[in-house]
Design brief:
The protein is an all-alpha fold. The protein has one domain. The protein contains 6 helices and no strands. It is elongated, with a radius of gyration of 15 Å. The two termini are about 20 Å apart. The relative contact order is 0.17.
Length: about 130
């Protein structure tokens, strides 16, 4: 198993627990911290994709987006899976809007955290574990 994927899954599970606790206690700070863990799970899943192609793992979100764009040019299947667009959308909503700006509509967070981020991690695992490009 890929260490980045393991970390992505761990952070995601921690985020779920923290989000539920924050929502139950109506604690915006706890919700924002849970969202940042969710974002961290996206970053780790993305690192797993980049590592799969034996490329250096970037340090910044901008570098990750650029690397994802490079991978899209190299691999049609990768592009079809929409990793770059999905990464950018979660970056904006989770990391920028919610964590930094405090704009955290709980109903939309539920969809992002419980559906979209989970699907991204699962798709990253599928891509990594099925041998990557075809």
């Amino acid at each position: 198993m890929n260490g980045y994927l393991d970390e992505a899954r761990t952070l995601y599970e921690e985020a779920l627990v923290a989000f539920e606790r924050g929502r139950r206690n109506e604690n915006p700070k706890a919700i924002r911290e849970a969202v940042e863990k969710t974002w961290g799970s996206m970053v780790q899943a993305t690192n797993s994709l980049i590592e799969k192609r034996r490329l250096p793992v970037p340090r910044t979100p901008a570098d990750r987006r650029a690397r994802l764009a490079d991978l899209e040019r190299l691999d049609r299947r990768f592009k079809q899976m929409g990793f770059r667009d999905r990464f950018g959308a979660r970056e904006h909503f989770l990391h920028e809007d919610c964590y930094f700006d405090g704009i955290c509509p709980v109903d939309l967070l539920e969809e992002d955290i419980f559906s979209k981020v989970r699907a991204y991690i699962e798709d990253a695992a599928s891509y990594v574990n099925q041998g990557g490009p075809r």
